[in-house]
Amino acid sequence: MASEDPNPDSDSDPHQAPTLALKQALCFSCWDVSSNLNRCSACKRVSYCSAKCQKQDWNRNHKKICKKLVALNKQKGYVPSAGRQWNDYYDEQELDLGSGNRNPSELRIFVGYVHSPVTDENRSPTSLGTITIYEPYCYHCYRRESQLEDGAKLNACQYCLLTSFCPSCQQTHPSAECSTLQDIAADDKIIVDLRRRTGKSSTFSPTKFPRKQHFLLSSAKDWYDYYTRLSDMGGFRSKMNRDLKYLANDPEERKLVEYMRCGTNTTTIQLTLIAALEAVIPNISTRGSINIHIIGAAGAEFNSVPAFEELLHFLPSLTALQLSFVGLNVLEDLKHDTETQNPHTLQCCTTCTKMGRTISITTWRGPYHAYVDTEFYKTPDLAAAFRSGFSVDEEEDWYPTIKYLAHAPHPTLLTAARYFEIQGEMGVWKNLGAEFVKNAEVNKWKGMSPSLTVCGDKPNEVVYRNYWWYIVKQR
Ligand SMILES: [Zn+2]
Ligand SMILES: [Zn+2]
Ligand SMILES: [Zn+2]
Ligand SMILES: [Zn+2]
Ligand SMILES: [Zn+2]
């Protein structure tokens, strides 16, 4: 079943279908918005804008899973709407996925929004599990369409498109929640658009020119402050609010602001790193070189590589930034030789290049505690593990590394999306006798674009990237 399991960390798969497509609000093949979508008449789980698109997806992937989806539609138990609870819907999903050997927490951290579709050729086939887990259901009675009486249909919320209602229930959901889901829909459209125009898988709005003067990031209150005061988007000061919502009427500007908000999901990595460096290096404003290790690096970290130049632009004295990506998911095809550890040099802007400033990257595939024993290891100023989830997922893989980090010769930054992960992590650190430079708290530099959690504690629960952060002290 491994190949049919939903990826528990879909954010790290750059080739997955957008949430809107999984919720049948976009053509499942070309991801176009169309008012005229037709569903696969057999399974009714995916929609297409044209016969051509349907055929394309059939050949690419759908023929392998359609029959199984039809079988799932038939097999479903029926709990009458009056007595139905969120848990009934939730438990049925686990049943569908054959979760006998599955850790339920894996499902709980499975988040929906995927940042990085790439090209038609390298799109991941959407698994049976992913389609099942995103199946629309009535927001109020938690029934799926195959559980409604007399072939009744679900209606999607006309504003967010990501919530559905059956004909017997109220046709609304709370407006604040709808507004958050509209952000997810807007981000999906941005990413589809970006992929079409550039083939790129993520976006960010960098500071264009290196700063001449150093400002502490901790002096900024939030992303709005960062963009309008510390970066170079000052022109937008009166045109967006602190949640990076556009307030004026120009469609082009609106798009730019939406890109800015969406970009925070990439740059959350770099800004959280800068904030951590400020917390652990007292003379950060005069440092010429910094060495950072990214532990457990995967899709999100690699997608954000170009945004590391933000560290050069933000720290005027920094001339050499060394990055090492280490982890079990580290790609082997990054353009350099992993055997000799000849670093790959990131192409920087003309100004940085002229000044001789450099960002060098090495990668090493394997667990971090093994990396420290290699000849390539050099004690970093800071190590970081973004959304490791070590207390809920792959605990055995992580434990020796965590044990090492509890008393390592450097501080380590860690982040998590959800509070229960933080609780679990604190328990582990406590047992290991670790101390903290910074205790767990809400991260000012969390991603501002939400992701839909499909198996949360309630419908339409969302999470934000790197929402929590803390720093473990060096020994
Ligand atoms: Zn289409
Ligand atoms: Zn089908
Ligand atoms: Zn209903
Ligand atoms: Zn809505
Ligand atoms: Zn530059």
TrEMBL record:
Keyword Metal-binding included in the entry's annotation: yes
Organism: Letharia lupina
InterPro entries: Mito_gene_expr_regulator, Mss51-like_C, Znf_MYND
Gene Ontology MF terms in the entry: zinc ion binding
Residues in MYND-type domain copies: 27-66
Protein name (database record): MYND-type domain-containing protein
SUPFAM superfamilies attached to this UniProt entry: HIT/MYND zinc finger-like
Keywords: Metal-binding, Zinc, Zinc-finger
Gene3D superfamilies, sorted: 6.10.140.2220
Keyword Ubl conjugation: no
One Pfam family from the record: zf-MYND
